[in-house]
Specification:
Largest sheet: 3 strands, parallel
Strand order of the largest sheet: 1-2-3
CATH class of the largest domain: Alpha Beta
Bound molecules: zinc ion
CATH superfamily of the largest domain: HUPs
Number of helices: 9
Mean pLDDT: 94
Distance between the termini: 19 Å
Strand content: 15-25%
Length: 282
């Protein structure tokens, strides 16, 4: 089994990201591999120094990843070739619609605007425009280890979606499916806030002839106000100088039973966590 953790370097790790990292780490058995990837494809959103800080935090918290860290920003050539593959199958087209043009005329769903295909047959030049991938009007289904059987019809939920933005940045979904496949990732375990990206990612996997990994989406950690812990709502940065209490807190938030013998070191925590981790209740 090969799992991975793929933080976005728009800030340091907070408790929500630690919980996701811990679950994906423990879900990989001792003879499997756990990979670390920095999802820094969206360069305008990157915060200088965040990636290095995240790596230091993970290291201090006792995570051990296999092999070299993968940086999305260094893999643009791979994404370009995936886009070529889609273009050869006539699966992408250029779109000149701005958010403003679409708001008011396009339906809006839980995942934002449902693109109505205005530019699908216009044959617009790619340069200076966004690129969208065509989606089928049929259910895409998969079995999530935590959420059960899930189906999504992309035609109704997102419409043809963007794979390269107008500013030239490759979309997260495209980069992610290419990276996971290239690294041989067999299990994607992440927060349930990313559940609605599965339909789009599975569609891209099928278009690109890539395997679909097993998916598990764990509950999102919320603060006392019921908001998802995220960098956007100022979730507190983790102070990795005291790693053990952070690990125990993340363990508790993961819904795991309290460890009978309280660990006194990071190494002891991980050896106990490996023995008792149980994803069954997710
Ligand atoms: Zn358009």
């Amino acid at each position: 089994m090969i799992g991975r953790f793929a933080p976005t370097p728009s800030g340091a790790l907070h408790m929500g990201s630690l919980v996701a990292a811990m679950a994906s780490y423990l879900a990989v058995p001792a003879d499997g591999r756990w990979l670390l990837r920095i999802d820094d494809i969206d360069t305008p959103r990157n915060v200088a120094g965040s990636a290095e800080r995240i790596i230091r935090q993970l290291d201090a918290l006792g995570f051990q990843w296999h092999g070299e860290i993968v940086w999305q920003s260094r893999r643009l050539e791979r994404y370009r070739s995936a886009l070529d593959q889609l273009r050869r199958q006539d699966l992408i087209y250029a779109c000149e619609c701005s958010r403003k043009t679409l708001s008011g005329v396009a339906d809006s769903g839980p995942q934002g605007i449902v693109y109505p295909g205005f530019c699908a047959d216009k044959g617009l030049p790619e340069h200076g425009n966004a690129l969208r991938v065509r989606v089928p009007d049929e259910d895409i289904c998969f079995d999530d280890q935590c959420r059960g059987h899930i189906c999504e019809n992309l035609h109704d939920s997102t419409g043809d979606f963007i794979v390269r933005r107008r500013d030239g940045v490759y979309a997260y979904h495209l980069a992610t499916v290419v990276d996971d496949a290239d690294a041989g990732v067999t299990q994607v375990l992440r927060g349930a806030d990313l559940l609605d990206s599965c339909g789009r990612q599975i569609h891209l996997q099928r278009c690109l002839n890539l395997p679909t990994p097993a998916y598990a989406h764990i509950p999102v950690i919320r603060n006392a106000h019921g908001q998802k812990l995220s960098k956007q709502n100022m979730a507190r940065e983790l102070d990795e100088s005291e790693p053990l209490p952070l690990l125990l807190e993340a363990w508790r938030l993961l819904g795991q039973k309290a460890l009978v013998e309280a660990p006194v070191s990071v190494a002891e925590f991980w050896s106990a966590a490996r023995r008792f981790f149980d994803l069954a209740g997710c």
